[in-house]
Amino acid sequence: MSLYTQFDHYNPPIGPDGTPYEFYEALRDEALQTDTPIGWSEVYGGFWVVTGWAEAKEIQRNNTAFSNAGTTFPTYDTPNDRPLMLAGSDDPQHAKYRKFVQARFSPGQAQGFAYRLRVVTNELIDSFIDRGRFDLADGFTNELPARLTAIMGGLPESDTGLYRTWVHAAAQLSVAKSGASAAYIRELDEYFQTKIEDWRSRPDGDYMAMIAQGHIDGEPLSDAEVKGFFFGLLLGAIDNTSYLLASMFWRLSWDHELRRRLVRHPELLPSAIDEFLRFYSPGISGRLVLERITLGGVTMEPGQQVVMLHQVENRDPREFEHPDVFVPDRSPNRHFALGLGIHRCLGMHILRVEAQVMAEEFFKRIPEWRLDPDRPARWYAGQVSGMATVPIVFPPGGGLPEPGWVPGREPAHA
């Protein structure tokens, strides 16, 4: 039986290194050997799984045959059951919304957050540096994106735990369709409602104040549209970024040669971050088929669901030389971790700045660390995936280790 048949992005087989990449590589190899870059999964009522880079490129560029109405699969629960803002809409509506906000996500705007990100990163490091062991995912790689979201939105940084809870409810609990997410989504909606009037009267011009006070085609945005923008910000800024950062630090926890190379050559960090995006792509992209189309040797019918598995597409040897090798200075690096075309990730510049600042500051304070031999790291699977826990050990107080310091255990498979 084909590996496609029972493929489930929420429950992939986990290999000896604690990740599903051994399975993803096997699926990629099957697709190449049988010339089936697109296969059918019977899970969740059936959907097409795309593993080929060229085929994924065509789908992302074809906005006539494919709709972003299927961007999440199974569909996330959202406030008032509205489609995800930007990510779940098509042109011309998508173009209007994106044009309205895109200036806030420019490279210059992203760099403008660098100083504040350094301050927050060091505050977080201060909170655990004396312990000598810590779960980086729990209070570091998931906290910085949530703090930045609060800063961007003009919201209390003390509420970051709420934001992460709501994202988890939408991205994980809602998929089970058990009703478990309903209370959280309602809580999220009520929280937004209490903030809207404040955003509309605030003069300081933060992102959410700009949204709430904005106009499109001469009309002010409705409450539902304002909520949609903030919910989209939560998902994009917290979920994707958190798991990418956790996977990055997990790799650096056992790949000592790579870590030391980046410490010695910080100029490699920008290209290395793109390689982390390729190698550990956090998200997948869904599309709804609108028109009958033949692609990759299969015929897709209107109403069918497509899932582009970027974790596999970004290891397609037809596009990437030595795809299973991490190359920190890889160029070109045309991965799909941030999407392509009109739906390319709006926050991609901010994500890169976050990753670079976090790595630079951590390297300065804790240049040597290892995986904790007593607490295994754990993978989180779903529409967005990555390391859910990254327990490490390091010299208490930071700096270089004293003689006799015992390193952690390495994973069985890289």
List the helices and strands and how they pair.
Blueprint: H1 21-34, E1 38-41, E2 47-50, H2 53-61, E3 66-67, H3 93-101, H4 107-112, H5 114-126, E4 133-135, H6 136-141, H7 143-153, H8 160-171, H9 182-201, H10 207-212, E5 215-216, E6 219-220, H11 223-254, H12 256-264, H13 269-279, E7 285-289, E8 293-295, E9 298-300, E10 305-308, H14 310-313, H15 348-365, E11 370-371, E12 378-380, E13 386-389, E14 391-393
Parallel strand pairs: 2-10
Antiparallel strand pairs: 1-2, 3-7, 4-14, 5-6, 7-10, 8-9, 11-14, 12-13
Helix pairs in contact: 5-7, 5-15, 7-8, 7-11, 8-9, 8-11, 9-11, 11-15, 13-15
Walkthrough of the structure:
This protein is an alpha+beta fold. The protein has one domain (21-393): Cytochrome p450 (Orthogonal Bundle). Helix content is 43%, strand content 11%. It is built from 15 helices and 14 strands. Strands 1-2-10-7-3 form a five-stranded mixed β-sheet. The chain has a three-stranded antiparallel β-sheet with strand order 4-14-11. A hairpin with a 5-residue loop joins strand 1 (38-41) and strand 2. Helix 8 (160-171) packs across helix 9 (182-201). It starts with 20 loop residues before the first helix and ends in a 21-residue tail after the last strand.
